[in-house]
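Re: weekly structure request thread

Next one in the queue (372 aa):
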Amino acid sequence: MHDRTPSAPHLTDSERIDRLRLIRSDNVGPRTFASLLRHFGSARSALERLPDLARRGGASGPGRICSEDDARRELAASRKIGVALVAPGEAGYPPRLATLDDAPPLLGIRGAPEVMMRPMIAIVGSRNASGAGLKFAGQIARDLGDAGFVVISGLARGIDQAAHRATVASGTVAVLAGGHDRIYPPEHENLLTALLEHGGAISEMPLGHVPRARDFPRRNRLISGASLGVVVVEAAHRSGSLITARMAAEQGREVFAVPGSPLDPRAAGTNDLIKQGATLTTEASDVINAVAPIMERPVAIDLRERDGEPLDFDAGLSERARIVDLLGPSPISLDDLIRMSDASPAIVRSVLLELELAGRLERHGGGLVSLV
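Done, posted below.
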């Protein structure tokens, strides 16, 4: 059972180095990377323009641009521990993850590449899980694995751990918040080693990166984005698992929730998800039946640089100042910014990109932006 996708051209070594340099440079995230690549045509051309764009955005000094030597060292060090850096559309890059607007431009994968190409179901939940929750997570993961699905989760304590352990033989994928050489929590290194034989691990972070609190929501979008749907077994209010469920819904993925006792705070989040329309789930067939129609459709990956909106860097000083003046610490939507500034969408997006490269812009959910 594999996701059906079009074949993709393989990056040359030179292109891979250039792309690695661009995504590892200061203030370049996946969306900014995509905009730059789309506008300038290549990572190398975008790298040449970074200093000028950051200066136009008001950067106080030259931002760090990843050197070719640093990129080559990272590539060599990754290969030494069995990590391949792959681009969307290349073999080993989870097909459904590649369809996201903020898909990692290069993804570090380790393990069995073919497992990354199979349909995945995410299972997430409480780190402080109940015994019943752990038992159910293991059972539904095992049943999904027996049905041919790959179980993907975040290698965390509790529900994640139970789901991974139950599917070591059938294939499971761990999504890391840090680099491949900085496993969190450390006591799960043996679990990771065991699952790599038939499964895999993925990370968008460079080697040596120790996960911080803000890295876990970034990781969560990869868990939901690579999957057909997300099963939430236990989740308290305001938990990371609910963030994953929200991201899944925003990405157009199915959301499944396992009901629990109203007296158990670990079930409060899952019970609320059911009230909000998530599929009530008590067995693997609930998941399998819901995703069956989706699996009949091939995964549509645009192997050209994503369409997206055009950029226009020809704004005059007064027009640029008008856009910047409308920004502040309170988030504002892109649509409101375009309407209030009376500037073209292409110019507004270009000014925002310049501010982002200068480290002066923060992007929020729902298309909101604010000045740092």
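The chain has a mean pLDDT of 93. The first helix runs from residue 13 to 23.
Next request, please.
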